[in-house]
Amino acid sequence: AFPPRGGGGRADSEPLRHVLSSSTEAIRADGKASRWASALRTLRHLQDAGARPDTVACSAALSALGRGSTWLPAFELLRWMGAAQVPCNSFTCGASLSACEKDRQWCKGLEVLAAMASCSAECNVVTCSAAASACEKGEQWRPVFQLLDKAQSLGVESNTVMYSATVRACRGSWRRMALLLIEMHVCRVALNGYTYGAAIAACETGKQWELALALLSEMEGARIDCSTLVANAAISACEKSKKWLRGLQILGHMRLRRIPCDIITYNAAISACEGGEVWPKALDLFFVMRQAGVAGDTVTYGAMAKTCHGPDRWERCVGLFRDMRHRRVDGNAAVYSAAANVCEKANIWQEGLLLLSEMESSGVPCDAAACSTGASLHVMSMQWQAGLRLLGEAWGRSVEKDLIMHGAAVRLSSEGHEWPTVIGLLASVRQQGAEPIASA
């Protein structure tokens, strides 16, 4: 750890200058090999030999720390440089910022940037970009916007890297992202693959499928290669907006352009079909995925189950579920619940209860949706007490979920003529500050 012991002397003599020079070269070699601990030891040995580390030696050590993503020793070394009056420059501060960026220490990164003014180090586009990236990785969009303003006030011309970091920080707000893209066009800052990828990811979060497709088209017009990650985000934007046809068109474009399709690609496309209730398309995708050598996961089977709603599709859903078990894909509560719900809608209570029984024996925790579906299945099978036992583990959750489960419990109790239980359940709903649902 740093700071070094003592103050050390200046390398005024020839032997000390030689020690300083050879130690600096050793630190640089450690930095290139990402041996930051060795670099710090060499810096200590240099000081123990009677020579104070200079700016060059400290910069080399900071560079090693930056590559090793170790922000705390970097921050301590920079602070020691200030106390020991070792001059700092843009390179030393930039190396410290790099360590903060990789460790997502956005707050410390801003402290380094603020300290640059006190040590007369020039704030340039590299240091501002590193600080912006630290804020982006820490998911802090406000400081990134402040950095953009600060850079402009200092006469630092913001570049693609800095704007890309700002766009990525805005992935939770597509409107801010859109304004930034307009600003980039006005300032004639080039957009790259990372910028487009971050922008389309923001469209995915905001369910802005039209903007995502427009950006994808603009990206192609600019002859920027589209990656699997970017295309996946565009398909997900279509899926979340229930635009299944658009999602399938992007998938077709990926295959035409030989952009690799992964499990996320197929899951998003299958989920888009779920929204459009076009289960034959989802089934086609499922088999295309298998032919491509991409193994389905829990999300795949859950999405497939949700596309199988309808009285004539429950057998297909159960068959897919058996296939999932055969391939040793672990199911979660959402998968079991979706499959059981298909059986409920088709009035096939035996298969539905069997699925929920498998869920319990597999050790998968029963969630609110599974409990409600199970309650309905027990009503169909006239197994009132078993249904109430199933719901017993669900009490104590949020009011919104409890309302659904209370309604299911009321149905079970009333069908079984357990009127005291019905009255007690209705009273407990009101105690939580809610009104019983109409079906109850």
What distinguishing features does this structure have?
24 helices, disordered C terminus
In what range is the share of β-strand residues? under 5%
Q: So what's the CATH class of the domain at 23-170?
A: Mainly Alpha
**Rg, Å, rounded:** 30 Å
Largest sheet: none
CATH architecture of the domain at 23-170: Alpha Horseshoe
CATH-defined superfamily of the domain at 23-170: Tetratricopeptide repeat domain
N- to C-terminal distance: 65 Å
Do you know the CATH topology of the domain at 23-170?
A: Serine Threonine Protein Phosphatase 5, Tetratricopeptide repeat
Order of helices and strands: HHHHHHHHHHHHHHHHHHHHHHHH
Keywords: Repeat
Protein name: Pentacotripeptide-repeat region of PRORP domain-containing protein
InterPro entries: PPR_rpt (IPR002885), TPR-like_helical_dom_sf (IPR011990)
Overview of the molecule:
With 440 residues, this protein is an all-alpha fold. Among the domains are: 23-170, Tetratricopeptide repeat domain (Serine Threonine Protein Phosphatase 5, Tetratricopeptide repeat, Alpha Horseshoe); 200-294. Helices cover 72% and strands 0% of the residues. It has 24 helices and no strands. Helix 1 packs parallel to helix 3 (55-67), helix 9 (160-169) packs antiparallel against helix 10 (174-186) and helix 11 (193-206) packs antiparallel against helix 12. Residues 397-401 and 434-440 have low confidence and may be disordered.
